[in-house]
Amino acid sequence: MRESETWHRPLTELTATVQNECDDARRAGTELTQMGYGHICNTNIVIEHIGISTDQGRFDALAAGPDDGRGVLLLHGFPEASTEWEHQLATLSAAGYRAIAPDQRGYSPDVRPERPEDYSIEDLTSDVLKIADELGWPKFDLVGHDWGGSVAWHTAAEHPDRVRTLTAVSTPHPGAYAQAVRSDEDQQQRSSYIPTLQNVRGAEKQLLANDAAALKQLYEGVVPRDHVREYVERLSEPGALVAALNWYRGIKFSGHTGKVKVPTLYVWGTEDVAFGSTAALSTEEWVEGPYRFEMFQDISHWLPEQADEGLSRLLLEHLSQHG
Q: Is Chaperone one of the keywords (predicted)?
C-alpha cells in the first residue's frame, strides 16, 4: 500500500534550476521546444512525497507524473537522496511519464538495517523489485547514479524481464570497474578511498566533524546548495550516515553482475573523480543489447545535478527510442 502526501506546486517553486533555464530561453528568444523537454516551462508540476510499503519496511520517495504514465524508477547514490533527481522528475512528468525516486535502503528511516551483510547487491536489487511490485509495474525503465547505478546494472543484468531500459549515470558496469581496479593504476588511485569509508565509525566521525565540513567537500561545489543542506541534515540524523556507509561494507557480501541485454544508455563525465576512463570506455563490452555511450566534457561525478538539462534530454531520447 502506498501512503502519499501530494504537493501541488508550480514549477517556479519546484526547481529554481529549471525555471532559470526557461527564463534564459525566453530572454534569448529561444523556442522552448528547442530546450529538449517540450512544454515543461509552461507546466504546473505536481510532486508527491509518497511512502512505498514492502516487507522490508516503508520506503520514502518522490513521485511525479500521471499515475497511468509509463513507469520510470530513479535510484540515487551516496551521499545523496531522491532529491538529486529533481530536474529529471520534473522533465519526465512533463513528458507524461510516471517517475518515482525512492530513498533507498539505509536512507529511508524505516528501512535501515544495522548489519552490513544486509546491504549486499542482491538485497538492494530485491528492494528495487519489491518497490516496482508495490507500484504495480511488471516492467519499468530504470535509472541509477553512483551506488544507484551499481544497483541498476545488477537489476538489469539479473532481471531483464522486468527492466525495459537501463540508464546508468557516472557508474560503469561493475564488471568493467572490477577489471579496471585490477589492472589500471589510475582507477586504483581513484578507488583508494573505499577502505576509509568501510571503517564506518571512523568515517562517520570524520565526515560529520566541524559542521560536516568533509561531507560538504565531497560535493565539489557543483551540487546545488539547497540539495547539500538537505543531504547534510538528513545524514546527520542518528544512524543515517552509518547506514549509508554500510553500502561499502556490503561489497564483500555481494555477488558479481553479469552482462546486460536490455537497451542501455551510459552517461559519464570526464572530470569524475571516482570512475576513470578505462572502466567507462570498456563498459560496452558488458552490454549485449542496444548500447549508447555519452560523455560530458568537464562534468564531475555529480552529473544529474551539474548537467541536469543535458542528462534529462538524453534520458527522454533514450526512453522514446525504446518504448
A: no
Element spanning 264, H or E: strand 264-269
Cα(285)–Cα(125) distance, rounded to whole angstroms?
22
Show me where the domains of the chain are located: 2-321
* Residue for grid cell 543535458: 310
Query: How far is Cα 229 from Cα 86, in angstroms, rounded to an integer?
Result: 15
DSSP lists the bridge partners of residue 7 as 47
Give the whole-angstrom CA distance, residue 262 versus residue 253: 26
Kindly give the interhelix angle for 240-249 and 225-235, rounded to the nearest 10 degrees.
90
pLDDT tens digit string along 92-143? Answer: 999 999 999 999 999 999 999 999 999 999 999 999 999 999 999 999 999 9
Q: What's the CA gap between 206 and 210, in Å, rounded? A: 9
Cross-strand pairs, 4: 50
Alpha-carbon gap, residue 105 to 128, rounded angstroms: 10
Rounded mean pLDDT of the chain? 91
